[in-house]
Design a protein that fits this description.
40% of the residues lie in helices and 17% in strands. With 326 residues, the protein is of the alpha/beta class.
Length: 326
Amino acid sequence: MGAVLVTGAAGFIGAHLCRALLARGERVIGLDNLNPYYDPALKQARLAAMTGDAAPGAFAFHTLDLADHEAVLALAASEPAIDRVVHLGAQAGVRWSLEKPFAYTAANVTGELAILEAVRRSEGRIAHLVHASTSSVYGSRTEGPFREIDRTDRPASLYAATKAAGELMGTAYASLYDMALTGLRFFTVYGPWGRPDMAYWLFTQAMLEGRPIRLFNQGRMKRDFTYVDDIVAGILAVLDNPAAPGQHRIYNLGNSRPEELLDFVAMLEELLGVTARRELLPMQAGDVPATYADVSAMKRDFGWEPTTDLRTGLTRFVAWWRGHFG
C-alpha cells in the first residue's frame, strides 16, 4: 500500500488534510518542524486530535525542518512506500516576512527545492507532487476575479515572492525531469484549529477579551474567505487526479466571493455576542487591498467548487473556539 507524505502536517491545513486522508484509509507520513512562529502547543494539539481515530500504524510523524535538505532527502529515501506528496509546509504570514526575511527563503525556497529534489530522486516512485502557493502571488490589485493566467511577477511582499519562486521552480523541475506537479493558490483559509496570526482568530480573541481590533486600511479591505473543509476537498480532488508527467498545473482554491472586512467583523460580533472596539489604521506594508478567486478551472477539471458560505464557516469556528478555549 502506498503512502502520502504531507509536509506541514501539524499546521492548520495540514492537520485537516491528514485527518481526511486517514479517514479514507490512507497511510500518511507527516513532517513538520513545530517551529515557534506561533505556540507549538496548538500544533501538538492538532496532531493529537487528528490522529486520535487513526488505525494503528496509519500515521507516522517526523519532526524535521524543510530547510535541512539532507534530512528531507534521507527521509524520502527511507520511506519507499511514499508515492504521493502534498507539500504544505512553509513559513506563512505576510507581515512577519518584513521582520524575519531569512526564515522565508529558508522554508519557502530551500524547503521547496528540497521537496522537488526528493521527488526527482525517487525516479518515478513518487507519481504526483501537490504543492501549496498563495493568492498573495497576484500582488496589490483590486480588480477581480484573479485568474491563474494573470501575471504574478509583481509581489507586494517577500512572502509572496518566495511562493512565486516555488511555483517557478516547480515549472522548471516538471519540464527538466518529466515530473507531475500541481500547484494550488489558497485564498484566506479559515476554520477550526486555525492560525493565531490570522485576522479572524485575532479578532475573536481581542473581542472576547475586551481589547480593540486593528483594522488596516481603515477596514476597507476585501478577502475571499475560504473554509478549510472546502480547501481539503480541493486538495483531495487534485491529488486523486494527477497531472501528466512533465506538466505543472496551477489552480486557485478560493470561495470566489470576496467579503468586505467590516461586514466580516459585523458577522463575528453577532456570533460572539460582543461589540468590537475598532482601531482604524493605515494600510500595512506588504498587505493587499483585495483577494478574489476565479475557481472556474477547478470546477471544469475536477468538478470542485466551494460549498461553505462565510456565516456557516464562522459559526463552526466560533463553536470550536468555545469548545476548545471554554
